[in-house]
Amino acid sequence: MTTSARPLLLAALAAAAFGGCKTAPSTQAPAPAAPPAAEAPAAEGPEGALPGVSLEGLTPEQKEAVADFARSEFCHCGCPHTVSACLRSHHGCKHAPRMARLAVHLVRAGADREALRRVVGAYYASFDRRSKLEVEAFGPPFGDAAAPVTIVEFSDFTCPFCQRLRPDLEKFVEARAGRVRLFYKPFPIEQHPGALEAAQAGEWARDAGLFWPMHDALFAARDHGVDDLAAAAREVGGDPGDLRDALSAGKYLTKVRGSQVEARTAGLRGTPTLFLDGRMYTLPDFSEASLEFTLEDEEEWKAHGGWERD
Questions:
Q1: Are 143 and 182 in contact (CB under 8 A)?
Q2: Please, what is the angle between helix 240-249 and helix 195-207, to 10°?
Q3: How far is 236 from 289, CA to CA, in rounded Å?
Q4: The pTM is what?
Q5: Residue 165 backbone zone (phi > 0: left; psi -120 to 50: alpha; other: beta)
Q6: What's phi and psi for 154, nearest 5 deg?
Q7: Separation CA 208–CA 175 (nearest Å)
Q8: Which alpha helices (H) appear in the chain, and where do they start and end?
């Protein structure tokens, strides 16, 4: 277990807001894209480079880090200008202000200049890197089943970081009825006692039509031995003997292993990991503001088949 579930992103921040449970490390790392040539610093300082962007609460060093980012990174609106140039001259652009707000958020969380470029670069690159994730066998979703955006959460019932995320993620989905739905998929960290058995118990509960009550009971359980899982099954109205038999026979083991393989293929390095319509969520915290930011971007991408051009 570690506090850095995503080494490339979380370790890049001086102070990550959220961690995770780590699986086997990957030896492959995407190389950051080379930034465009930087503009000369604006004589009027960071505020002049970032018109209309609130820098409230940032230190002078943090303000300059955001301004340096804005002067050197291209805007994703499709114009041939940096974020700063777009803010100053392309007033109809909605992407430059969003990119600047994201940079402010990350710097406030502890990102230095190098980490800022890396994290923002990885975030925007993620929109072109999508995995086809199986969800039909992992329903029902939490939230509106007809919602257009799908979040897949790879999670472990024994992971404390997954347990911390769970209520906030469910609250986020509940508050956005009609916009987003949530599928839970198992990725047990097998160094955790009872993780593999708990994941199988979750899949047993799906077949019994008891998944979300069992999901809650498994996260609430202090231990995940067979007796504890049987007690959870009884608590949610299931047949504990049937669950014992399923665990003994390994009835759901292949399904759980398949979920693990799919997650690793999609780039997962630890739990919890989210995917929005197959795109890995790469921001270094799971705050409501960050989740809403990326959901809005996902909705734009879905509506226009890519970024809407200003």
A1: yes
A2: 120
A3: 33
A4: 0.87
A5: alpha
A6: -90, 125
A7: 28
A8: 7-10, 46-49, 60-72, 83-89, 95-109, 113-125, 160-174, 195-207, 211-220, 226-235, 240-249, 253-265, 288-304
Q: What torsion, rounded to 10 degrees, do the Cα atoms 52, 58, 59, 60 define? A: -10
CA 219 to chain centre: 19
Tens of pLDDT, residues 175-233: 999 999 999 999 999 999 999 999 999 999 999 999 999 999 999 999 999 999 999 99
Question: 221-244 pLDDT, tens per residue?
Answer: 999 999 999 999 999 999 999 999
> Which of these, 274, 279, 269, 264, lies nearest to 25 by C-alpha position?
269
Q: Which residues contact 131 (CB under 8 A, 6 or more apart)?
A: 262, 265, 266, 267, 275, 278, 280
Inform me whether the pLDDT recorded for 30 exceeds 70.
no
% of residues, the chain, pLDDT over 70: 87
Closest CA to 117 of 42, 82, 65: 65
Q: Which residue has tokens 């197959």?
A: 278
Length of the chain: 310
φ, ψ for residue 94 (rounded to 5)? -100, -10
- In this structure, whether the domain defined by 136-265 belongs to CATH 3.90.950.10 is answered with no
- The DSSP 8-state label assigned to residue 250 in this structure reads T
Query: What is the distance between the terminal CA atoms of the chain, rounded to a whole angstrom?
Result: 44
Residues 6+ apart with CB under 8 A from 212: 140, 142
Q: Are 115 and 12 in contact (CB under 8 A)?
A: yes
SS3 annotation, 128-172: HCECCCCCHHHCCCEECCCCCEEEEEEECCCCHHHHHHHHHHHHH
Residue identified by tokens 């039909």 is 136
